[in-house]
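Worked Example 4.2. Consider the chain below.
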Amino acid sequence: MAFRGQEASDQARREALEAEVETLRAQNAELTKHAVSDAPQSSLLPAVLLFAAAVGCGAYAAFAPYVELRMILILAAGFFTTAAATTVVIRRYLLLVPPDRICIVAGRAREVNGLKLGYRVVTTGRTMRLPILEKVEWLYGGAIAFERRLTVEVSDGHVDLLVGARCAVGRRHEELLERAVNQWVGYPVAAQPAAIEEAVVPILRSILKRILIQVSRDDLKKDGDKVEDLVRRDIDEQLWSLGLELKTLSLETT
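Applying the procedure from the previous section yields the following structure tokens:
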């Protein structure tokens, strides 16, 4: 996006950007206010139905007119009871991973690209964890939007910028996920967006200061796209070390 002066179109563009950022911030707050225990879990209805069938078979077996029928009903009651108990256990340890979560199942070593890791990462779908042997951690996997108004020094003075960005935990590469696990697991999942924002903002501010001090105001107006590309490239490199990837970046003069 090119840098422009304080024209009417720029004012409208800034207002639209601010509205979009506020909308995304509200969505993030809604997504992250829930605890990990609020993640979807499988229904208990199948277990209830199986248990009801077991009770019915057991009750009718006492009044069965034939020994053979009584034995069949008793065996059926035992089968349904076992099936109901198995269903409850599966529900207890079956993990459903929402689109805005990344599940970290730790406890068993596995080998990835020649390296032994003590966890596995599930980014979508469902998985089972072994009782006692494995424990579960969560990463927030949704987009994190923020905006800042910054005064940055340029070669011939200062410029006021409205900076908007969206980033997220990187899902595309094993290395990105590994870095994200090492960096962010341990924070409560609802607190991770704020922690990520607090880590990214100083990086962005530092990169802007380092790059813009080399250009003038006129350069910003003429070659704003090139300056933004430089900022994006540098921040991509910095975020990689945190297991994050930049989704969007918007810079506007104010």
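The CA atoms of residues 93 and 131 lie 7 Å apart. Confidence is low (pLDDT under 50) at residues 1-7, 31-40. Compare this with Example 4.1 before moving on.
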